[in-house]
Amino acid sequence: MDNILVIGIAGGSGSGKTTLMNNIVSRFHEDITVLSHDSYYKRHDDMTYEERCELNYDEPSALETDLMVAHLKQLKDGTAIDCPVYDFTVHNRSAQVTHVEPKKIIIVEGILIFENEALRDLMDIRIFVDTDADIRLCRRVKRDVNKRGRSLESVLNQYQQTVKPMYEKYVEPSKKYAHILVPEGGKNTVAQDFIISLLEKHVEGRY
Question: Spelled out in words, what is the top-level CATH class assigned to the domain 5-203?
Fold first, then answer.
């Protein structure tokens, strides 16, 4: 498939990446596909649920990024892939896969996607969603308690022990690789409209 545009959307957990991404996806529908770094968390069938709860999920070694790089290269070459599915309620990869077809626009999203050189080099446009830490924490609490079956205590413990320090160690420094910084993510309609206009030009063959 010719002329595929790869967009990377990174930022801290709860920064508004998903809102921005969903707004873009809703605009382009059949011309866009999404590849989430979260889908590539490693499988840990050898561990109990309690042991998996203790793992650090916010460092690069937690993810099978080499597989994601290989899949993204396949999509850019016009070949469909079977993407892994990760189940956050049990902290493990599911037995299911998701069939992903190449489209004119591919969005790659995740907190650590700019940290890996091989992965970020496959992206044509890199966007970093930059949001205040207090706002990110509030959003993470709401999401993990309401959608991922976590207790408030476990979410806060995980934030203090791994999420915050790993953000400062890996995510924040990766911001320097972004082409576009978007404060407040999907709530920033000016930046969102600018990005959508770029993608419209690509879909129409003008970019």
Answer: alpha beta
